């Protein structure tokens, strides 16, 4: 048996008035996903345990079959693994976004204009983070460049206890009430303020403004955590697995779980990502592995930006490029296969941030096709099925073990 997880990050949503009180999943043209739904099991699953925030870190760990209540130590440490940072037991890793803030004179009065600094390129970002490291790095603080706007700050000989806010949760809002506080709050806020003075007139940002792009004029710190301790995927589930994603977070989970992490040229985490390359890489990986986790960030990014048109487009691309190819290629082979289609969490267009609501899933098995009453896959048909899993770990137990 081969296992494929097709994860549309943030794909679930709430009904939207402008599209007839329907969700993007309801209006998207997705015949290939719907075909799996008609011959598979559809239901709802709770991916975010009570008491944890609905981040992609927690939710993707859950959909991969881990219990975040037992193994989650923070988002940034997982990304640090992907960047190649060797965290010590007393290191604290903190996510370091490059963001666009408004030009209000007082830092505290600024507004979060763009949490991704216009999806800044990795090349530009690397130069800016290296510049920040040269000016603000110390024996106790080190900045590491990641991908696009996503980077990392490591504080040595430290402990958790600082309160942060993810920048994508406050798009369009004044940052006054969302600045770092508690343990290292003053120190981290000072770094953010200094970064603004260093970055606002940097040549890269001057050129970006000249070309009509948002400048990466400040760092934004959030998502602290300690060195992660994940059981290997193979020892947990008894099969060899791989991960395909454009984002450091998922690559870090893969590394921590000792899975094969596959790089795909042109994979960028937006609706312009190389969907076809990811699909082909997934099929290729199944020659070496039993399981592949294909993570696509695009619906989530569109949800954070309130971009309904491209969220629908992202779902349609996942369907027409990824799901279609995966099913066609696996159907040519003699070995049976199982496919799980799901988001990790909803990212409603109206809220522009994650919520903890249960998400709709499909489990399809090529050797055990069902006659499902649900003819299409969305939040309502999943609810109407009456099938509900209180945790993703239970769902993955069924997906992998009950074949």
What does it look like?
By secondary structure, the protein is of the alpha/beta class. It folds into two domains: 2-73 and 231-401, Alkaline Phosphatase, subunit A, CATH 3.40.720.10; 82-225, no CATH class. Helices cover 35% and strands 19% of the residues. It has 15 helices and 15 strands. It is globular, with a radius of gyration of 21 Å. It starts with a strand and ends with a helix.
Q: Which sequence of strands runs across the widest sheet?
A: 11-10-12-1-13-14-2-15
CATH 4th-level superfamily of the largest domain: Alkaline Phosphatase, subunit A
What sort of overall outline do the alpha carbons produce when their principal axes are compared? globular
Number of helices: 15
Low-confidence stretches: none
Strand tally is 15
What's the CATH C level of the largest domain? Alpha Beta
Strand content: 15-25%
Main beta-sheet strand count, sense and barrel state: 8 strands, mixed
Q: Which oligomerization state do the chains in this entry correspond to? A: single chain
| Helix/strand order | EHHEHHHEEHEEEEHHEHEHEHEHHEEHEH
User: What is the number of independent domains?
Assistant: 2
For the record, the CATH architecture of the largest domain stands as 3-Layer(aba) Sandwich
CATH fold assignment of the largest domain:
Alkaline Phosphatase, subunit A
Mean pLDDT: 96
Radius of gyration: 21 Å
Helix percent reads 25-40%
Structural class given helices, strands, pairing? alpha/beta
- The N- to C-terminal Cα distance equals 8 Å
């Amino acid at each position: 048996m081969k296992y494929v997880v097709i994860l549309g990050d943030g794909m679930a949503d709430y009904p939207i008035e402008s599209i007839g009180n329907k969700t993007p999943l309801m209006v998207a043209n997705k015949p290939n996903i719907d075909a799996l739904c008609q011959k598979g099991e559809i239901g709802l699953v709770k991916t975010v345990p009570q008491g944890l925030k609905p981040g992609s870190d927690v939710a993707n760990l859950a959909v991969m079959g881990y219990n975040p209540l037992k193994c989650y130590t923070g988002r940034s440490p997982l990304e640090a693994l992907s960047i190649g940072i060797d965290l010590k037991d007393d290191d604290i890793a903190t996510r370091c976004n490059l963001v666009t803030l408004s030009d209000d004179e007082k830092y505290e009065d600024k507004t979060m204009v763009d949490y991704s600094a216009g999806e800044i390129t990795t090349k530009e970002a690397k130069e800016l983070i290296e510049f920040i490291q040269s000016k603000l790095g110390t024996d106790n603080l080190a900045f590491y460049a990641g991908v696009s706007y996503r980077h990392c700050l490591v504080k040595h000989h430290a402990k958790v206890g600082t309160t942060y806010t993810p920048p994508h949760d406050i798009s369009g809002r004044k940052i006054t009430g969302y600045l770092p506080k508690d343990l290292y709050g003053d120190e981290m806020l000072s770094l953010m303020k200094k970064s603004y003075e260093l970055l606002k007139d940097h040549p890269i940002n001057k050129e970006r403004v000249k070309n009509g792009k948002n400048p990466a004029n400040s760092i934004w710190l959030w998502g602290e955590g300690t060195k992660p301790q994940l059981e290997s995927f193979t020892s947990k589930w008894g099969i060899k697995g791989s991960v395909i994603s454009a984002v450091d977070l998922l690559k870090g989970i893969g590394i921590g779980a000792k899975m094969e992490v596959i790089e795909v040229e042109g994979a960028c985490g937006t609706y312009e990502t190389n969907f076809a390359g990811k699909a082909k890489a997934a099929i290729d990986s199944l020659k070496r592995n039993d399981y592949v986790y294909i993570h696509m960030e695009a619906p989530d990014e569109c949800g954070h930006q309130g971009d309904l048109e491209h969220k629908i487009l992202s779902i349609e691309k996942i369907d027409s490029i990824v799901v279609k190819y995966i099913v066609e290629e696996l159907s040519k082979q003699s070995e049976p296969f199982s496919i799980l289609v799901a988001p990790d969490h909803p990212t409603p267009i109206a809220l522009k941030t994650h919520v903890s609501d249960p998400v709709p899933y499909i489990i399809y098995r090529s050797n055990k096709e069902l006659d499902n009453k649900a003819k299409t896959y969305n939040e309502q048909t999943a609810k109407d099925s009456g099938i509900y899993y209180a945790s993703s770990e239970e769902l993955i137990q069924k997906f992998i073990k009950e074949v």
